[in-house]
Amino acid sequence: GAVVSQHPSWVICKSGTSVKIECRSLDFQATTMFWYRQFPKQSLMLMATSNEGSKATYEQGVEKDKFLINHASLTLSTLTVTSAHPEDSSFYICSALPGTGISYEQYFGPGTRLTVT
Amino acid sequence: AQKITQTQPGMFVQEKEAVTLDCTYDTSDQSYGLFWYKQPSSGEMIFLIYQGSYDEQNATEGRYSLNFQKARKSANLVISASQLGDSAMYFCAMREGLGNTDKLIFGTGTRLQVFP
Description:
- The complex is a heterodimer of chains A (117) and B (116).
- Chain A is an all-beta fold.
- Chain A has no helices and 11 strands.
- Chain B is mostly beta strands and 116 residues long.
- In chain B, strands 2, 5, 6, 10, 11 and 12 form a 6-stranded mixed sheet that branches. A 4-stranded antiparallel sheet of chain B has the order 3-9-8-7, with no helix packed on it.
């Protein structure tokens, strides 16, 4: 149980286009999801916290108009990178918190590798 | 100041030996949680072990144990009987507060390589 999926697993897009990444909790409901970004050989940096039915909370330095987050249901959050540029190329990982169960468990998705050409 | 510090960018260990990965943290909160995650080359984050700030005993999960020294603010991961499959990046993380929605802050990671 407690599986989180991400789609796509990798994507290549041209500079200036937008790309949407989906994060789904497959067998549990997640009121809260987190979006992280990881540059090569670096650590995970939290971008935003996504709560179902409300606006996402963005970390300092993360452009909310560039990284649009929508948590429309208890099992789905999406991250849209708008007008992508090569510097947005990164590994994007989501995690989800179940509404019940062990309070500290955050379940991570397998990640999405974005390359902007 | 760094909230989570992992001073070992890389570690080598021979198969079947034990290895300790260091992690120190900085917080003024009384309530916090400490985590270790494994990230293989495929990229997924695998939860290994958790230690709450009020837990009096060191956490253990199979071959993983967390050496929690609260006064020194350290939370080292000990892997016993290393296996080749343990080769991966290991991240220490902290959550300030004990609420579900409190964010995780990650260290810079340690790359562990297990050799035969």
